[in-house]
Amino acid sequence: MFYREAGHFRDNYQADMALFPIREDRIGVSLLLFAAFVAVPLLHLARIGPFSGDYLFNAILIPVLILSVAAIGLNVLVGYCGQISLGAGAFMGIGAYAAYNIAVRVPGMPLIGTFLLAGGVAAVAGVLFGIPSLRIKGLYLAVATLAAQFFFDWCFLRLGWVTNYTPSGSVSAPALVVFGWEADKPVERYLLVLTIAAAVAWGIANLVRGNIGRQWMATRDMDIAAEIIGIRPVEAKLTAFAVSSFILGLAGALWAFANLRSWEPYAFSIDRSFQLLFIVIIGGLGSIVGCFLGAAFIWLLPLVVEAVPRWLSIPISADAAANLTLAAFGVLILLTLIYEPHGLARVWSITKHKLRRWPFPY
Amino acid sequence: MAHRISRLSALLICAALASPSAVSAQENGQFIPVLSYRTGPFAPNGIPWADGIVDYLELLNQRDGGINGVKILYEECETGYATDRGVECYERLKGKGPTGAAFVNPLSTGITFALTEKAPVDKIPLVTAGFGRSESKDGSVFTWNFPLVGTYWTAADVAIQHIAKELGGTDKLSGRKIVLLYHDSPFGKEPIPVLEALAKKRGFQLTMIPVANPGVEQKSQWLQIRQIRPDYVVMWGWGVMNPTAIQEAANVNFPRDKMIGFWFAGAEPDVVPAGANAVGYKALMLQHGAGRAKVHDDLDKFVYGKGLGKSKPVDTGGVLFNRGMVGAMLAVEGIRTAMKKFGNKPMTGEQVRWGLENIDLDEAQLKSLGFEGMISPVKISCADHEGSNKSRLQQWDGKGWKIISDWYTADEAMLAPMLKDAAARYAKEKGITPRDCSKES
């Protein structure tokens, strides 16, 4: 009733191939973009409710958006092309350190150029470490990407020029200046991150619908069959590695420049790789909207679990709260995977289904 | 465990019956955030440290009704020693209370690095007693950082001074082999510039061996040490890395009394798990060690007597518990100093910063605070945010720490120029114009 696929009459191919062919989708997405780009900053300027302070931006919106971008990157590889990777954190790290080095060593480089080049460096590294995927598959490939993770962790810690010979190995980001506009306030950094996230989501949504995306999905579903119908596995797999690493590198640069501002190699450790893999699996493999849902879920769940005793004014000691948070986090993830093994993206599509049938479910 | 469960259930029942007692933003008082880690690989060290801070704040509330009559409101936030969680905690707590956070003490060098970028924007002083960035001692560049009573560079210099003394003079260092075994993170890398400079100056051979986080795997490192056969091993470890290193030293028969841990490798959780193997192990002290002073009697009476303590009364004299108390005490004295100028009301971060910069605690004041004998007098100024660069050494005898040295003072003639260089480099990178300290009041 609220959401109908039927009744949309399209009289040209362009309308038929649009990213959002259904009117309700278009309205929904426009409203969401309007809320994110206009309403949230306005509410912040008007100092209304939780939008007034920095917390919402610095601790929730910016990290969730950047993790969503990273998850889209990993999803290209894992969800669309079926290549399991445990090296996502390392590729984020490459992006972050590449951006840092470009910013330090190339004066006058515009920020967007820095980010794109950082993504490019990560893409090159991704292709190099994607070469083994032509021979090895599944869990063995996961181990190969794990090697990438440890190799780059080592580089960040050991190679002096990566951190510009900073004695402690901790580096900090320069000011974020985009076309003369300095994004130093949290809400400005939020808008920068949001713009990039929207652009990446739009770009990847289009990419996976097209020729390359179909090659990836065919390879994922059955690589031998894909080869037989004329898809070159080298091309399909390496483009997936390149695109995935590019986006991960971009996300890493954002994580370092827009979120942490000062970071050490542990920001991109194996824990980050696992976190991203959890986001992709819980969000839904092969789904863009799932990346955003998964990132929000993984990032917010510990905060909510920790906050529940505070909201209920239960005077629980800090150590008990910390341990309960860990336990509850694990249990909730297990429950999510048991009751919705296809991830949050599936919950979203079930919701759409329900809206379509309402009020006459059968 | 059973005790803890029963206490937890009792608390839950209490909560169901009684009205809420949590800190609310409307309450008038001085808000102090407590970033701590009671989970993760560093929890054995993080718990007593955080207990010391929280118990000291509670003591002030119970004994004196707060700071000069202004009640202390505090809230703990679990960071798990992770930088991103620490930043989240900071963002959540920085605006609480009537005047926002008075100061923040992140208990982690990684979080300190991240907050060094944020504190000047939010105007909240960063108190890092015994840790953090060494070059932030230079208050003209690092206006908001206070690495009170000891930086890593001070520690590195004192460690070498002690080795020289044991060998019989600084000239005896020449040609010796010293290994730095360090936690592979900014925290562990901090002392490297100073040790390298000292190796050059004194002519000893320095080998640096990193240990990957969290430090439970050190077999190859100790094999390497066995091959090198160093005269001394200086250890820059934290958490599980320390007892593991002592165990491995015993496995390769490296004498424990030739191992010198720095002050974050010199507490009870570092040696107790290694059992008898730890006997003879030495560590720097960050001025105070284990032991009790008058403030501990007050704790027993006002906090533990009322069942409000976080730790157990027998553990309150531990090294890390004392470190928590000393850190909290110094920061609170910063608030008290600020109140002298701005009046007895909750202070803002900016006012606390002024207060911290004007801390001047002599022996008599330390005695009246109950910290007699724990630390030496502290005087902070715009140019010197450390306040005191002294340390002693202690040795583990299997049951407790024994102080084995007199006070050492770091060699400022060597450290000051290095510090200035590092601070100037940071100022240039960030476009900071250093303050003129002669114009500060």
Task: Give a verbal description of the structure.
The complex is a heterodimer of chains A (362) and B (441). Chain A has 362 residues and is mainly alpha-helical. Chain A folds into 2 domains: 1-6 and 21-53, no CATH class; 54-357, ABC transporter involved in vitamin B12 uptake, BtuC (Orthogonal Bundle), CATH 1.10.3470. Chain A is built from 14 helices and 4 strands. A two-stranded antiparallel sheet of chain A has the order 1-4. In chain A, strands 2-3 form a two-stranded antiparallel sheet. With 441 residues, chain B is α/β, with parallel strands linked by helices. Helices cover 43% and strands 13% of the residues of chain B. Chain B contains 15 helices and 15 strands. Chain B has helices at residues 2-17, 43-64, 83-93, 109-122, 152-167, 186-189, 192-202, 219-228, 241-251, 268-271, 294-304, 319-342, 349-357, 363-369, 412-430, and strands at 30-36, 72-78, 126-127, 145-146, 177-183, 205-211, 232-236, 259-261, 282-284, 360-361, 378-379, 390-391, 393-396, 401-403, 408-409. In chain B, the strands form 5 sheets. Chain B has a 7-stranded mixed beta sheet, with helices on both faces. In chain B, strand 8 (259-261), helix 10 and strand 9 (282-284) form a beta-alpha-beta unit. In chain B, helix 2 (43-64) crosses helix 12 (319-342), helix 5 runs parallel beside helix 7 and helix 12 packs across helix 13. The longest helix of chain B has 24 residues, at 319-342. The interface between A and B is large, with 40 and 51 residues.
What's the arrangement of secondary structure elements?
The complex is a heterodimer of chains A (362) and B (441).
Chain A: H1 13-16, H2 23-45, H3 55-80, H4 88-105, H5 111-130, H6 138-158, E1 171-172, E2 177-178, E3 181-182, H7 186-209, H8 211-221, H9 223-228, H10 233-260, E4 262-263, H11 270-283, H12 288-311, H13 318-339, H14 344-357
Antiparallel strand pairs in A: 1-4, 2-3
Helix pairs in contact in A: 2-7, 3-7, 3-10, 3-11, 3-12, 4-5, 4-6, 4-10, 5-10, 7-10, 8-10, 11-12, 12-13, 12-14
Chain B: H1 2-17, E1 30-36, H2 43-64, E2 72-78, H3 83-93, H4 109-122, E3 126-127, E4 145-146, H5 152-167, E5 177-183, H6 186-189, H7 192-202, E6 205-211, H8 219-228, E7 232-236, H9 241-251, E8 259-261, H10 268-271, E9 282-284, H11 294-304, H12 319-342, H13 349-357, E10 360-361, H14 363-369, E11 378-379, E12 390-391, E13 393-396, E14 401-403, E15 408-409, H15 412-430
Parallel strand pairs in B: 1-2, 3-4, 5-6, 5-7, 7-8, 8-9
Antiparallel strand pairs in B: 9-13, 10-11, 12-15, 13-14
Helix pairs in contact in B: 2-11, 2-12, 3-4, 5-7, 12-13
